[in-house]
Amino acid sequence: MQIPDTGLHRDIEADQAAREAMAEVGGLREVLSASASLDVMPKSGGRVHVTGHVRARIGQTCVVTLDPIENELDETIDLIFAPPEQIPDLSELVDEAAESDAEIPDPPEPIVNGVIDLGRLATDALFLAVDPYPRRPDAVFQPPVEAADPNDHPFAALKALRSDAKASTPGKPSGKPKGGEGD
User: Fold this and answer.
1) Is 115 helix (H, G, I), strand (E, B) or coil?
2) Among 2, 23, 67, 139, which has the minimal tally of Cβ within 10 Å of its Cβ?
3) CB 134 within 8 A of CB 69
4) How are the residues of the chain apportioned to helix, strand and coil, as percentages rounded to the nearest 5?
């Protein structure tokens, strides 16, 4: 589909099969809903500016309690796409901006075979918004409490060896091995 000079707007809603696939690929318990609202505007030189939002409700597992939890995601999208042959030149501009105090723009994404996959773009943005360590708001990690045994520590075995050595040799060693020549 060609992008008109005035741009175009696309609303995407993931169906059940797409949500199941996203949950599997993203390592999520489930994706309850996922949608994107994107505006696509052509720019000079064959570049395209894509802006919008991705919203989703996902099911995860709390890393503290292991209880199932749900999280709302709302991720902003603001990307420039460019023909592949322009990427090296535009990336150099980003590198030059990094050396100055100016705000560093993101390098453009390539337009592959003349296509921008908006569904893939929305899915990638959703995955980037997922909390890798989700926890319930009231979850507090409390390590197991055990009574400290003064003889149970990493150096207890060394202390025991030192005690055994003192008991078996009451005096200082002579420095000569026993049973050697000249005994």
Assistant:
1) strand
2) 2
3) yes
4) 30, 30, 40
